[in-house]
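Hi P.,

Sorry for the delay on this. The queue was packed all week, but I finally got your sequence through. Input first:
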Amino acid sequence: MRHFGTVTYYDAQKKFAYINENGTDYAVTTSVVQFLPEPDQLLKKGNTVYFSVVQNKVPGKRNYAQNITRVVESFNPRVKRTEGEKKLLEIFRASSWLSGWTVLEQPYINGLHPDFVLIHPFKGVVIVEVKDWNLNDSTRYRDGQVLGSDGTYRDADPAYQLNRYASCLSGLTFLEPEGLRDHIWNTSMSIYHLEDNPSNRNMVLDRYSFFEKVVFFSRPDITLEQARKFCPNSQFVWTRNEAEYLLDRVHNRFSECQEFPWALRLFGYGKVQVATKYCSDAPTTPDGTNLFIQYLRRLTCWLDGTDYERARKKPYQLTQAQQALAQHVSRACRACESVISSGKSLILAQKAADGISAQRRVLVLSYNITLTNYLRDLCRQQFTGDSRAFNQWLRVDYFHGILRDTLYDLKLTVKMEEGQGADVNAEEKNRVIRTYVQKSIEAICQSSAKADLYGYDDVLIDEGNDFCDFEIAFLKSMVYNGTGEFLVMHDTAHRIYSNLSLAGLWADDSATLGLTKCALPYTYCLPHSVKDLLERTQKAFQIPGLAMEIEPSAAELTSYGSARWFDQDPTHYQKGLLNELSYWLKERQVHPEDLIMVTVDYQSAKRLSETLRNAGIPVQLCESLRNSKQEFWAGKNNVKVATYHNFKGWHAPYVILVLDSDLAPQEELQHSAVLSAFYVALSRVKPTSDTRSYCFRCLNFLSDSRLRPLAALFEQ
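Then the structure:
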């Protein structure tokens, strides 16, 4: 019988760990830890693993865990497993022969989601595609083809699909140690007796030979002969019989099964016992690291779940101060000033979840498009009910989206003035936008028709410091129906990066808008070093805002990381960037989605993303277009690049600010976008949920002496 538990403790020096299953601890001894191929990854605190139990002969002592397999199930709540996927996942969980393997369910690879990817750092990679097709239905399925809805047959050999997955994996060239490709080609040439020509070389390197590919036909009535006949181009084919070989207690049958990948046929971790020559013959780096093993370790990290995903397995538990604000108060109109990392968005998400449960119409609103995706995820996490109710009673949107839809609903047209070109300064852009919003609100208020968007019971506004007084007044009088709650969460210190020059000023006299003041001064997830640096920044540049206090329940949480400033040579822009990224993504094996790169303006973000793409690093750039901003969400396994405006509301454990846009002539640092970008990027650091690790880096490519006060903050 296999057991399932969570790693609660791991000591890398003493080679010892504990796995907890429903309150019972099992010990992972030194001999087992040393036998594992990658204990630091498999036994990382918070990981869920499957294992076998050996009884301890000493009465009253903990039993032992061995044959440990890590299964990373899909974090996407919308993923619905097919019957075949369920069956194969059960087999992977129950197999004691997958000891040391990491099984990833539907990892994201450049827009593709293979059903399963199995990785062992000493053996290789196995990609599995599951098909529930009934090959006995000859009218629908014939050799390599499936009958489509249009009445014609289309090619459907899964081999081509698996080759695409392998090509995407081999396309992550940034992860490759130097010399790996030459080793792969030389080894493949000796194994398969290939001629050294460009065609063969490209074929091998486009789909690395150690990426072994399996098609699994899950129906129990499908024979191996049928499966092979349907997809003759597939490297390996499993039916239910072959898949259940993994459940055998005696592994001799593996060597008899010609449909088993070489990586799965042999067991053990020594160089003599590895399934292929890719690992045993691989060259080593100067420090003695095997290139093949190093690459597969990096690949495992790249495909693994992000901290963002791990933190969303279950609803957040609110602190006492957050719970007090999250309580619903009917007919209340409030403005809550909060500090950084006080849980503003979480409180709104909990209120939204409670409102949905009570069948109230709820509107969660921000000023920034990119923040809507984060808010929607958070609301879905806090709401544990039916998704149909979630979609029926909740709307998450941004202010201009509400304004646009209201104008459309009332059949009104308001044109924006000229002045939005690239050469127009920020002050003029703000004036044009403000004028457009004012005209739109006036047209809506004067219309005799009634828009469908009116009448929300609860209106919950995040980042209220971005809104102007007339925008808040419009939402309160025209969108809110007065029966539920109208709540605006804002942070006075974050006015420095508002879109409009008048944004946030309403908070100084919120009573004129009929809003009662309240406050949340507690920060509960901000590292102490980052909190101290933010406070020094506020003091040095006279940034207004509440004094930050550590939330009592979070006072004992210790974080591990650092915040540093690095002056870079502008003539070596590419080298400086790639060296920093190489350290975090390769050496520290940080997941790409846990690292965010922030810039001052869009041109800088575009230049940065082009540099990373040219180095083979998958990048998600938040562009100025609305569609691009709406697609800026977690789950794409790319390094995110955004300006500080578009990054508001988001958090990440590793934040790198890139300064390569000069200050305007005679511009003071205190009133510059550079200071705004610095303060915003620093405030977005949130430690990982398991190890509490974090980092903030400012890479300064500017030689302007006016930036010296910022650098001096790190010397105090």
